[in-house]
Amino acid sequence: MRCTITGAACLLIALPAAAQEHPQEQVRDQSETLTTPGAEAKKSKPDLLIVPIPLSNPALGTGATVAAVLFYNPNHAPSPWISGIGVTATSTGTKAIGAFHSMSLGHDAFRFMAFGGYGDAKLKFYGIGSAAGDRGVHVDLEDKTFLGLAQAQYRMAKHIYAGVRFQYIGMDSNAEIPHPNFPDLALPPIELKSTLATLGPSLTYDSRNSSLNPTGGTYVTATWMFGARFLGSDFEHNKLQVGANFYAPLAKKTIVAFRAATCSVSRTAPFYDLCMYGSGGDLRGYETGRYRDRVTWAAQGEVRQHLFGRFGAVVFGGVGGVGSSYEELGKSDLLPSVGAGIRYQASKSNNINLRLDLAFGNDGHAVYFSLGEAF
Within the chain, where are the H helices? Predict the structure, then answer.
């Protein structure tokens, strides 16, 4: 069952993404979660929720988001309409504001969602490729980014939705001048001040029994985006992203979850639209953007165990890699991830968990604190 708190959780996680170096990854994951039908009560009376939530991750630092979310159901559909606005601030100086709307029509036969946000983020650029990430040398960036995203999908068959997605990124970035020994850290001016407008097909398969904390089912998403000059884009590259999650009960109080994901982008992509390792919940323990290239892959598994009362625990592990092509992936070093976490059921009626994870990667460890599971 999902109602106000669950929808708020999804929105709250999505809003900080407007300030991240790779915003579309996070926004895609969370907005698609919001548009997934669950066993929502068919309420017609509007329900307004104002809620704060802390957050912590390697890219953004530690901070909080405050959001106001309105739930309403004007056509008594299986899924409510959701509109919201929120603001975020973190310890790195990152600030963001965003607004979101999702709706369904025709008894959930048609789904639509839209997101718009502005972020001023303090980030790091380590270069492109596995070797650059291993090197650990970076330049500081200040990214002022406007993000717009809209998607419409139609139910083609049971569990299957197909449609089109549009995404707009207005980038105004200032980069530190790199040391002469690292010329690859100098970013082209056309990429620092640029516009990216992409359009392409989107496909979703969703048989999960819950959108935020599933105990069974499969969730697959695929998008293939193309830069469109006629929409004002400075770039004409294409980008393919595919992700698949699988959930199953192992015992009465034990759930296993698996995720596999891959990303590939053509050669003319700007630095902020390359495939980024560790984004979108794909392997914790890595700062999003430290490892970036034209191709990434990741696979991970997680065991979720209920302990007592509202408390639970998880252990997780996975591996992946980055490369300039799929052929080069076989020659690159593997990037492992392992970790464990504690769960606290913040809402018993909606089965929503607060999560605190400690993850270890090649470059050290990272702490994550948020509402909802990583995938």
Answer: 4-14, 23-34, 130-135, 189-192, 326-329
pLDDT confidence band for 40 (50 / 70 / 90): very low
What is each CA distance from 23 to 155, 218, 278, 369, in whole angstroms?
Answer: 27, 24, 13, 18
Q: What is the C-alpha to C-alpha distance for residues 254 and 235, in angstroms, rounded to an integer?
A: 46
- Kindly state the DSSP code that residue 16 receives in the 8-state scheme: G
Contact (CB, 8 A) for 13 and 370: yes
Q: 331, 344 in Cβ contact below 8 A?
A: no
Distances (CA, A) of 248 to 48, 98, 208, 293, 336: 34, 34, 10, 33, 24
* 287, pLDDT greater than 60: yes
The encoded tokens of residue 9 equal: 């959780």
Token duo for residue 105: 């029509």
**Which of 320, 340, 230, 235 lies closest to 280 in space, CA to CA?**
320
65-79, 252-266, 280-294: range with lowest mean pLDDT: 65-79
Sign of CA dihedral 347, 348, 350, 351: positive
Mean pLDDT on 108-133: 92
Rg of the chain, C-alpha, whole Å = 20
Beta bridge partners of 88: 65, 96
Q: What is the dihedral of CA 339, 345, 349, 352, to 10 degrees?
A: -40
Nearest to 149 by CA among 104, 103, 118, 114: 114
Residue 5 confidence (pLDDT) above 70? no
Would you state the pLDDT for residue 217? 97
CA distance 151 to 202: 8
CA 279 to chain centre: 6
Encoded amino acid at 316, one letter = F
Q: What is the number of H-type helices and E-type strands within the chain?
A: 5, 18
Domain boundaries, the chain: 23-371
The CATH architecture that domain 23-371 belongs to is Beta Barrel (2.40)
